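Before we proceed, please read the two lines closing this message. Report back on whether the structure tokens fit the sequence:
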Amino acid sequence: MRTRIPAGGTLRAGLIASVVSGVPSTIHALAAGRDPLEATVAAGSMVLRDDRPRGHLILAALPTHVVISVIWAFLIAAGLPRTRRRLAGAAYGLGIAAFDLGIVGRAFPRIRALPLVPQIADHVAFGLLVAVLTRPDPDA
């Protein structure tokens, strides 16, 4: 059985999760001596040509990532069960990683070049955060 989540709560969850869920790959990048903005630049390359200046790619990534994150947040929230929400959210994040990285991301060289495990961790964290940050509508 699914629960109804207020739209404002889902929007807020998507916005927060879009930022906080990047922590795993950022920590990995810093620990590995890689560029911590590498994933951000890669996201920008989805909407601008890869040869554009780095600053342009970063600026393009911000609204792109937020919009994609909010859409995913609404899809996750709509499918969360009443129980085991965290587990379900993490599982949705894993599924989104398979789609984002395994299907869509294959078309973008910068996304293909990202270390896979930290990106998967970001997606799982995203789904988990959406599950934690959304609350069922008490009137549903």
